[in-house]
Specification:
Number of domains: 2
CATH topology of the largest domain: Rossmann fold
Radius of gyration: 26 Å
Number of strands: 16
Helix content: 25-40%
Strand order of the largest sheet: 9-13-14-3-15-16
CATH architecture of the largest domain: 3-Layer(aba) Sandwich
Low-confidence stretches: none
Structural class: alpha/beta
Distance between the termini: 54 Å
Strand content: 15-25%
Mean pLDDT: 88
């Protein structure tokens, strides 16, 4: 996410100034063939975040539930037996940090934390259960070296015991939100609650979705119990069975005690035969709106939260179920109105947004598998200027295979002949 200093395109809108020498990017977009490793890359961020937040808590569980679940790369005899390596560099209040760890079989093999002021200095270094703490720069870790279990990150332990630096780093990891563009349920509840509790968010969403011919939007308690009760009453009347009636009566009593959930309702204009507006009609979002509309509305919750609070949003399959222009406008909005140093990383397939008017070259990334089945991540900025210029047609060049990371059918004719081959 570090901008290339020689690139000047979209410098004011798409980058964040760190210091006189460094700009970081507001967003990065990742392309690649199906199965190339885009989702695995995002999963790695998600797993690192979860381990930093939860390793101390998880160590308190029963032994059978304490396993650290990290998948190995199984297509290489060496990698399937070595620890899995995680490392990330980030900035908190102007201070640069480098934090990482290696996980073996159910235990932390190594762990390290460095920070940079005038030069990089270690705060702690860990090799197995041997932990070396910098007594000058990381006083909060002194005396905790021998209290850390083999399956607990030292950083998480220090944060749990109110270490100031450790807590700030754990809080930074909490600001990372990894979601799937294919699974609205991950963020549906957040958006519903936000719509009900935040007037500014409600106003923003209402304005954002005007192009969908939705006149208003609201979060209200869905009358699930009444709808179900009407169905059960009709069933009792039709069947006239005493045992069934007793069972349905008991079921209705259970339903009456259930907590009702808030749901999103959209309002649409209703017209008479002369196209004169006569009313508005409420549509339960989940039952009467399109899949694309549902995804957009639910996605606006984390989108708003990220921009307003300066967080990091990582989205797999951002463009699924969204129109090309809409996806581009969402990203444009993120660039233009992101004043809190928020960042976006997203994996997509839609090449129409692979556009020099939206992204700088260093914001565009590709994932491709090499001949040995390993994923390789590289940027458009890695190509020589003779291949990629800031005015190149990125989308056309990508589809032509100039940047790789696209599907290749080795023998298309044979695939066709196989269909009709007699067996």
């Amino acid at each position: 996410m570090v901008g290339t200093r020689s690139f000047k395109e979209h410098e004011d809108t798409n980058t964040i100034v760190v210091d006189s020498k460094t700009r970081v990017l507001k967003s990065a977009i990742i392309y690649g063939n199906n199965g190339s490793g885009k989702s695995n890359f995002i999963s790695a961020i998600r797993i690192m975040r979860r381990l930093v937040q939860n390793s101390f808590r998880d160590a308190l569980l029963e032994d059978s539930d304490q396993r650290i679940s990290v998948q190995k790369f199984l297509l290489n005899s060496e990698s399937e037996n070595v620890p899995t390596f995680f490392e990330i560099k980030f900035i908190i209040d102007g201070t640069k940090f480098r934090y990482g760890f290696e996980i073996g079989k159910d235990e932390i093999e190594s762990e390290w934390l460095f920070h940079t002021t005038s030069k990089e200095v270690f705060l702690f270094k860990r090799n197995g259960q041997d932990i070396d703490v910098n007594k000058t720069s990381f006083e909060e870790g002194i005396g905790l070296e021998n209290k850390t279990k083999s399956n607990v990150l030292f950083l998480s332990l220090v944060a749990q015991l109110n270490g100031k630096i450790a807590n700030s780093i754990v809080s930074w990891f909490k600001s990372i939100n990894c979601i799937s563009g294919n699974n609205d349920r991950e963020y549906e509840r957040y958006t519903v609650n936000k719509l009900k509790s935040d007037k500014n968010f409600h106003l923003w969403v209402s304005d954002f979705i005007k192009f969908l011919e939705i006149s208003n939007i609201d979060a209200s308690e869905e009358d699930i119990d009444n709808r179900n009760s009407e169905t059960l009453e009709a069933l009792k009347a039709r069947e006239n069975d005493e045992a069934l009636t007793n069972f349905l009566d008991a079921l209705q009593k259970v339903q009456a005690k259930q907590v009702k959930l808030d749901k999103i309702v959209t309002w649409h204009r209703k017209y008479d035969k002369n196209n004169v507006l006569i009313d508005t009609v409420a549509f339960p979002l989940d039952r009467q709106e399109s899949e694309g509309t549902k995804k957009l509305i639910y996605l606006l919750g984390p989108w708003y939260d990220t921009i307003v609070n300066g967080k990091i949003l990582v989205v797999d399959e951002l463009d699924s179920r969204l129109h090309t222009i809409l996806t581009g406008k969402l990203i444009d909005f993120f660039h233009l109105w992101n004043k809190s140093k928020a960042q976006l990383i997203c994996a997509v397939h839609d090449t129409a947004i692979l556009d020099k008017d939206i992204f700088r070259r260093d914001q565009i990334w590709f994932v491709d598998k090499n001949q040995f089945g390993a994923s390789e991540l590289y940027s458009l900025s890695d190509f020589k200027s003779a291949v990629v210029r800031n005015k190149s047609d990125f989308d056309k060049n990508y589809l032509k295979g100039k940047y790789a990371a696209i599907p290749y059918f080795l023998n298309f004719e044979k695939l066709g002949e196989t269909i009709y081959e007699k067996r």
